[in-house]
Amino acid sequence: MALHTFRPRAIDALQGYSKSRLLADLGAGVTVGVVALPLAMAFAIASGLPPQAGLWTAIIGGFLVALLGGTSVQIGGPAGAFIVIVYGIVERYGVANLLISTACAGVLLFALGWLRLGSLVRFVPVSIVIGFTNGIAVLIAVSQLKDFLGLAIDKMPGNFFSQVHVMAQHAGTVNPYALGLGAACLFGLLLWPRLFMHGSPVLRMAEGHTVRSFARIPAPVVALITLTALSHFMGYPVETLGTRFGGIPQSLPAFALPEFSWETVRLLVAPTITIALLGAIESLLCARVADQLNIDPHIRKHDPNQELMAQGLANFVVPFFGGMPVTGTIARTVTNLRAGATSPVAGIVHAATLAVIVLAAAPLALHIPLAVLAGILLHVAWNMGEWHEFARLRHFSNHYRLLLLGTFFLTVVFDLTVAVQVGLVLACALFVRRMSELFRAEPEAPPKNAAPTLAWRLHGVLFFGAASKIDPLAQAIEAAPQGVQVHLDIHDLFALDTTGLEGLEQILKAVAARGGQLMLSGAQAQPASLMERSGFNARLAAQSAAPQPPAAASPPAHSPSSGETPG
């Protein structure tokens, strides 16, 4: 198998690069960098990490994904989908082991891309993707209720039911100031895009360039600045970044090697695979969304293998600077695309913008209320979930409903690893069942005035899931008179596996036991090849050449037509 050549999309995207494209990329990069600022901090805090872990993940990871990736407009960084996973790993294994697990996941992601396995992610059914996405959205929302309500809880547990139980026990500790800030943030985020829609009262009352420019400011940034200022100057007694974390270091992150041992790596196999699997799915889904939204002729379709290799390198490097898992981010990628990005330069500018903000304005982060960040994450959770799919379930099959709802509830009740594993096994089982229903053996009427004859026409794919449907044929042959002639028309048998071939062997033995003949006609290429390679055709010919009992000596009902194989 040929390995994938490492060739970042930036090499091709910058050919014929113009000043107008540079200006567009600069504007898009600055815009998405500002958008990423509150999200990166919020994702880190929700994951049980300090805010700078999210910021430097967005800066370093975003830079590497843009520079080395297989897309032109993908924005890499921390993502909401990882919150539950990372929080669980930190709770169970600790931060040091999270870093090791992330680095190992990076190696695995790079290997997937190098071995050209990027396209395999597309084999994950959309019902499973929607199920765990909605499940993660619910878990994110529940995990943010503590800070949103200002509950006096020292440490939140890692699973859904324990979280609900602990919050119910501390329901009397709600901080009205935190609740007010969180509710104002959430309401503002929901209202902001509607204020500037075409025909809205705001635009009708204040039409002009200033209003349109103001509308371009990302809603999370507006909420973060206004509510932080309100809380600080009013002196609200709420928990902030400063009171919980001591603020954000105004310096570059230090390079540090996490404590490594092979015994630890073996313990971290499950979280490593989870991070790699989720990172691959999230990144390539994001890339596909960008491909669908893109109308710029300069932007080519993504290269899934190169993208996985870049994601792998980013996830391998970021842990050495105290970061968290990196993946493609749909919301920021869409923002980047809609802001006019044309090349990976926009992603590089996004990373540079974040670095400048962190290094220049880190002290201001001391005053950010955690309730405001919780409101931003609740809005992310709402937008992340595809809730309309629940209403549309009645239009789909029971198989689709079972996969979507099963994955959703398993994600909420257990975790993503269990949900995806069970979902994939269930999807395979349902696929086998569906394919088995497509195979059928239709009886055909034998010619008149003929020797005892049984005839069937086989349709579909005869594989392990449908092999049991051969049993009634063998039973009918066993109950037939001596010298029975059996004709199988396999013109419409498109594929055959070894289990299906064993079913044909069963028919051959049953015919031989009755002293009859088996005739096959119209074998297609794949079934014919398997029957030849396995020796079935030779055994069929040997049965034909064997002496027949008197009952079978009479002329057959009809001679094999062209293309038939007598036995």
Structure description:
The chain has 567 residues and is an alpha/beta fold. The protein folds into two domains: 19-184 and 236-383, no CATH class; 439-565, STAS domain (Transcription Regulator spoIIAA, 2-Layer Sandwich), CATH 3.30.750. The protein contains 25 helices and seven strands. It has a five-stranded mixed beta sheet with strand order 3-4-5-6-7. Helix 6 runs antiparallel to helix 21. The longest helix has 28 residues, at 19-46. It is elongated, with a radius of gyration of 31 Å. Mean pLDDT is 85; it is low at 551-567.
Helix content: 55-70%
**Which regions contain 5 or more consecutive residues with pLDDT less than 50?**
551-567
Q: Provide the spatial order of strands within the biggest beta sheet.
A: 3-4-5-6-7
Report the count of strand segments. Answer: 7
What is the count of structural domains? 2
What separation lies between the terminal Cα atoms? 41 Å
Number of helices: 25
Strand count, sense and barrel status of the largest sheet are: 5 strands, mixed
Shape: elongated
- The whole-number mean of residue pLDDT values reads 85
Q: DSSP strand (E) fraction? A: 5-15%
Instruction: Please state the CA-atom Rg, rounded to the nearest Å.
Output: 31 Å
Helix and strand content put the structural class at alpha/beta
